[in-house]
């Protein structure tokens, strides 16, 4: 075993630039080097630590970024579509468990020491890494050299802006990676999807031992006659800490709509809580678009069901929430808009904090745009002006309560629409086979 030594903190307090200095062992020459750590607060995100190691003896240097917070309750996947050169300047935090992909050419950057950069920087690094050993490949493996030359050329066109649109994704099971959003992002340009980790992913993060056996010692619902408004308890594994927890489930009937399943998960070990709503039934031929006009504060008390597949929009508010961001929700209009506001604010730090390191705050122009957005959203939640909310659901599983006893509600407009190719692909409807699948199973 090699000799190691515990890092020695040279100064307990940061210097005038906010940097901490720690004496540590150089992994190259095994002599003493210096690690400098700078805490930074990232707008839209959270605290990170920039680490820079340098050794005066051999000249070896290394830079990494680490999360200063804890592992999040859920993993997260960001998908972003670049369609102009300015998009390359979007900030990126990639933790050591984050996987960055160039979706258009199916190229993946595997987990590595964390980075704090922008999209131009991370894509340029991929190109530089591929080019590094090309001279040797040309001599030893010409087939691989030729294949990589084509990929390098495509990445070069991306960076030059000659291959727009370019789709990238960043998937992190720890939830500690991110791509910077903007108030101007509309449609499928930017999306964030939070997901529950599997048992294996929790083991990868060290939240549970690798040799722990995934057990489900609770009672299932096989053969149970589920009664409306009766609460059923299921024992399962907490997606956050992998300890046993309880899922409460209740089937309820929404008047003038359909039956839905309400689910709530509570973990007594780590405090994890979540709620969700599931809808069922056959896949309709068309999607459904529900437009609700908000006129008074009474409209904020209307019941609203936003299914997992539904996009929430409001052109008046400059708001668009993609399906994976909130999941399924059965609440009121006020409750839904409040959840949207709180989640966005949870991503955006108070950039007026005096502890912010120099140079890491958002621009004044961007801050002004976000301030205007949140101010208008706060006023909308109080119904201080008239605006519309749109639920666009390709599976027609969303619902808004009517405020009239009979007939059509003049404030609600319901229309069917043809699903787009993108929606069909996202829902997996092209691959879905409802007839003759028994023969495939037999084969």
TrEMBL record:
Residues 24-181, 236-402 form the Zinc finger ZPR1-type domain. Keywords: Metal-binding, Zinc, Zinc-finger. Residues 427-436 have a biased composition (Basic and acidic residues). InterPro entries: Znf_ZPR1, ZPR1, ZPR1_A/B_dom, ZPR1_jr_dom, ZPR1_Znf1/2. It comes from the Eukaryota. One of its GO terms (molecular function) is zinc ion binding. The keyword Metal-binding applies. Residues 407-443 are annotated as: Disordered. Belongs to the ZPR1 family. This is Nucleolar zinc-finger protein. It comes from Exophiala sideris.
């Amino acid at each position: 075993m090699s000799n190691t030594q515990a890092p020695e903190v040279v100064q307990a307090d940061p210097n005038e630039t906010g940097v901490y200095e720690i004496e540590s062992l150089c992994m190259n020459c095994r002599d003493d080097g210096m690690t400098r750590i700078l805490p930074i607060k990232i707008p839209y995100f959270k605290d990170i630590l920039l680490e820079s190691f340098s050794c005066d003896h051999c000249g070896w240097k290394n830079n990494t970024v680490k999360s200063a917070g804890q592992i999040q309750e859920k993993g997260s996947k960001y998908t972003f579509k670049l369609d102009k050169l300015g998009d390359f300047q979007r900030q990126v935090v990639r933790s050591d468990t984050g996987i960055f992909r160039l979706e258009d050419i199916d190229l993946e950057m595997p987990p590595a020491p964390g980075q704090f950069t922008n999209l131009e920087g991370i894509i340029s690094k991929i190109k530089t890494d591929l080019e590094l050993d090309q001279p040797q490949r040309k001599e030893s493996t010409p087939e691989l050299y030729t294949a990589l030359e084509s990929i390098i050329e495509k990445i070069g066109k991306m960076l030059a802006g000659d291959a727009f649109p370019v789709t990238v994704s960043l998937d992190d099971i720890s939830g500690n990676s991110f791509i910077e959003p903007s108030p101007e992002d509309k449609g499928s340009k930017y999306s964030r999807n939070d997901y529950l980790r599997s048992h294996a992913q929790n083991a990868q993060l060290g939240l549970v031992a690798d040799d722990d056996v995934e057990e489900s010692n609770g009672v299932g619902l096989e053969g149970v006659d589920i009664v409306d408004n009766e609460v059923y308890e299921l024992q399962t594994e907490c997606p956050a800490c992998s300890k046993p927890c309880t899922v409460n489930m209740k089937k309820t009937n929404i008047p003038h709509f359909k039956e839905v399943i309400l689910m709530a998960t509570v973990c007594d070990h780590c405090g994890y809580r979540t709620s969700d709503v599931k809808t069922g039934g056959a896949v309709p031929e068309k999607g459904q678009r529900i437009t609700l006009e908000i006129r008074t504060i009474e409209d904020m008390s209307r019941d609203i069901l936003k299914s997992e597949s539904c996009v929430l929009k409001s052109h008046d508010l400059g708001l668009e929430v993609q399906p994976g961001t909130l999941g399924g929700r059965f609440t009121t209009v006020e409750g839904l808009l409040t959840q949207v506001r709180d989640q966005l604010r949870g991503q955006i730090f108070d950039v007026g904090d005096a502890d912010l390191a120099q140079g890491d705050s958002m621009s004044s122009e961007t801050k002004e745009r976000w301030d205007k957005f949140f101010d208008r959203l706060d006023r909308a939640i109080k119904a201080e002006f008239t605006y519309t909310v749109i639920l666009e659901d390709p599976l027609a599983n969303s619902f808004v309560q009517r405020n009239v006893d009979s007939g059509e509600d003049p404030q609600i407009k319901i229309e069917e629409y043809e699903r787009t190719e993108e929606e069909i692909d996202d829902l997996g409807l092209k691959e879905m086979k409802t007839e003759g699948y028994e023969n495939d199973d037999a084969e």
